[in-house]
Description:
- The chain is an alpha/beta fold.
- It is 23% helix and 29% strand.
- It has 7 helices and 17 strands.
Amino acid sequence: MTQTSQRPLRVLAAMSGGVDSAVAAARAAEAGHDVTGVHLALSANPQSFRTGARGCCTIEDSRDARRAADVIGIPFYVWDLAERFREDVVEDFVAEYEAGRTPNPCLRCNEKIKFAALLDKALALGFDAVCTGHYATVVLAADGTRELHRASDMAKDQSYVLGVLDERQLAHAMFPLGDTLTTKDEIRAEAERRGLAVAKKPDSHDICFIADGDTQGFLADRLGGTAQGDILDESGAKLGTHEGAFGFTIGQRKGLRIGHPAADGKPRYVLDISPVNNTVTVGPIEALDVTALTAIKPRWCGTPPAGTGTYTAQLRAHGGETEVTAELLDGTLSVSFTEPVRGVAPGQAVVLYDGTRVVGSATIATTVRRETAAAG
């Protein structure tokens, strides 16, 4: 039983100004819930407008959300959470890159803003649930607990970025789009039928607080500009220089500017990033094969797992599933892959699944490579 089929609730609908959150709010209201719309002002300088399909949380988006709320016929407010967002999401993002890790700010925003700061304020004001336009499903289990499951349509599933939600937060979460087997075009058509002007608005993508998509430039501006360092091969030989280790991610192929090919003529990829001595190590794609990892700061969507279990794991927001065995020991999650995987970087989240049910999420701390057995 999904939460949307329960008794009528007082619902706070987070409205980004996009089509998904607008349709979600409309469906919640249509289901008989007492819905109030709220737009989160997350930018300290919201004067800039989105660039194409990039960015969000601008004045333009606030106005789009207000117009959608007017059409739906629900009250609407703007809440300023810019300072909280800067501290918990933006500063965390910069600090992680500075430490040589690859963070996912969408997970952090869901954990710290939408289902912590926003939810806590909503509950204090007497609301029963927070509604968003995420594609995932909350299921009421036979024992009365709530579980987070993948969306009905795997192509739109967003449960990976919601894997940080705990059982208390899930008890107050509503995702009206999650169990709908419709394409995004059909969601847009529904928005148009409902008279919502956002029906044709492009989706936001990439990192919402980097509107121009220049992550390296954003980081360079906040980390004191460029800091030239060496690009090394696996033996430690210098191949070239770079303008800041923070501009690289594990598995990156493009933009290395080494200037001469490898001895075997094959492409080279970023294998390791060392912020301590500002070096980037590159090598063949085979050296990216990871057989195991450890992850810290686990968050469970229900009861923590006991002993060693077999699961599937997802390592990126738009990545596929891979079979793993996992065990929680003294707060650290140890994960072993049935088949080696590539492009795994410290700072990313590993999300465990039991079928379609989200078991929980943890932050990758170290990796073990198949041939070198070196910690990442």
